[in-house]
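User: quick one
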Amino acid sequence: MTDEDTRGAVLSVLTRIAPEVDPDDISDDALLRDQVDLDSMDWLNFLRGIHRQLHVDIPESDYASLRTLADVVGYVEKNGSRAG
Amino acid sequence: MIEFRMPALGSDMDEGTLNEWLIKPGDTITRGQIVAVVETTKAAVEVECWQEGTVGDLLVPVGDTVQVGTPLATLLEPGERADTPTGRRPHKRTEPAAGAAAQPAAAPTKPPGAPPAAPGHRRWVSPAARRLAGSLKVDLDAVAGTGPQGAVTISDVEHAAAAKPAAAPAAKPTAAKGTAAERAAERAAQMRQAIAAAMSRSKREIPHYYLAEEIVLETAMSWLTTRNAQRSIDERILPAVLLLKAVGVAAQRFPEFNGFWRDDGFQPGTGVHVGVGISLRGGGLVAPAIHDVPDKKVAELMDDLTDLVARARAGSLRSSEMSDPTITVTNLGDQGVDTVFGVIYPPQVALVGFGRPARRVRVIDEGIRIVPTVHATLAADHRASDGHRGALFLTAINELLGQPDLLEK
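Assistant: Done. Structure below.
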């Protein structure tokens, strides 16, 4: 999977949680939860979606390091390949 | 014979439009069965029937808007009038009046003779999507839902509408978008009005008093972290669930905060059903109930909350969830601000608010420490309780949050 594929997959999980979001409007390096109105339930559902769709296990202690889209994509790249 | 009436849907909902009947004359229905779907400005509400019997007649055709309390159907009590011999085999009947009226122009058009959707597996369709589908003549049964839990959203309907004339490619949605935006705006305006009515009534009628307490969450959060570390992401629980449980247990101990003010008197709730304020994408909020909170384990409450939020956002709630809350919790969560002072949802008599949990400086055991805390507030109806009891109630919530092991059960 290339970075672009992963980014697309992450965004598709995100737009399922927040259907009003236009993926083109999401910037990679701004805080995701500032760009998209996600409460703690949305955020958990987002991470659950990543876990389910991309087969990446995300311990709760890593939540804090996932702040931007780039963080999430990087995390999936790193931990997804390790698992696969 | 029983008249099954349109149930209450909460104090800001006094009418609804019948979207769909899930029963027909001759059907046997059981307690709690979902018998119809009624559209309100806040959600498509699945109407449950709490009586048992055999369906006699459906009195309201699909598409009609009816007030709370209007008879919707007649039911024959078990054993009453042997119209259907055992009550088991649905009687084939042509059902003249309701059948003829059941296809008004506004209703989403279903091909005549299409098999009725199997009740237990009805798909969620947001009210706005349903309206748009009606106006664009899109067959909802053929639309694939991409919203939460497969719910059909406005954009699904738009895509389906755009795909319909197979020759026309991507250019169409722009045309549909104007109408969709207008409809969304209209729905938002209606919801605003409903909220305005309920909140005005609250502030007009309820003499609120407010209390606040900063609760140290150190024990609760470290308990939660340890618990969640041992579990997969699907089994982890949010701090919000501990807060809900603490309020539920405390409300059981302080019954004057759990119930309704009606006809110049306090009516204690039967059971503690905690309404959860859920903000909707696109604006507005709903506060449907999680039933019997003190009796549920936190894992169960987490599942209930996840399900409730998903359904509220997808625009599909049940009538008992709308009408049953005995107390409400509003939780700003970690994107919120420090403190919230809520407005009581009439005819309830109390609302507990939680601000954003954060690390704050506190004096603990003669030392200064930085610990996670949350500001809890109580807005309560002074007709039903006094500040002294309110303070004890809030203190009880504080103490319960210091004993997460007790809350788990």
